[in-house]
Design goal:
Oligomer: single chain
Order of helices and strands: EEEEEEHHHEHEHEEEEEEEE
Strand content: 35-45%
Largest sheet: 5 strands, antiparallel
Structural class: alpha+beta
Helix content: 10-25%
CATH class of the largest domain: Alpha Beta
Radius of gyration: 20 Å
Distance between the termini: 8 Å
Number of strands: 16
Number of domains: 2
Shape: globular
Amino acid sequence: MKLRVSHLSRYEYAQTVAFSPHLLYLQPRETRFLRVSRFASNITPHAKVGQMPDALGNHALIAHFWDRADALSIRTEFEIETLETNPFDFLLRQDAAAFPFAYEPYERFLLSPYLPVSAEGSAEACEAWLAKHVSIRPSETVAFLSALNQRLYQTLQYARRDDAGVQSAAATLASGIGACRDYAVALADLCRTLGFAARFVSGYLYSEGNDHRTDNAMHAWTEVYLPGAGWKGIDPTHGIFCTEAYIPVAHAPVPECVNPVQGSYYSPVRVPSQLTTTVLVERFGG
């Protein structure tokens, strides 16, 4: 599937301000299933933009500003081909085919950032939710993860939140309401409670229908590490394993590490600001 993505973030300020360097997680990562043919960025006011791989292997842009302005506009556009048509086209290592299983010692060492539950109080909340909602557990690993994902999808109610921040798994499971980033954190911590290594993923999703969950916004989901298959994407907001319609941009143990735009503005007085975002994901080339 060939997809074209256009993303504009525009920040408007009540008066001119100065800007710190901004870290941008807006460039998709390339894998054997993801081929980026074009990527371009345009930032106003003028900025010197560099690229750097972060500590987790994500593509990050860093923008340095010299001019003051009363607006900051960050536009990125790219074209990508996604090739993972069958999300279940893998074979697990024999000892991981049945759940529960144990990671090898070297795997546990490498996966250590992705094993602990992310927030205080979430482990107990996850254990209580699992006892209530997942009392019958398939013995086959992939079937179990599918059932867990479906159960979370069925019990939560989606609500778009434009305010900053991410709810803890405990808060989302208690309220039963959340945005896609809240779903992703909840599933990651549920998986960690069960012994899986899991991480948060930020990216884009192509939807052919009128999907209010992804309308004019980036998307978030979870990846779980499965021996023999590697990191596999699971989307609790839609209750499915990730397909070729998903474009991962950045991953991390916690979402705060990969906020799409990270930076500050400066002024000697308090200056109100307003953010407007436009995201378009479209298919092209048949």
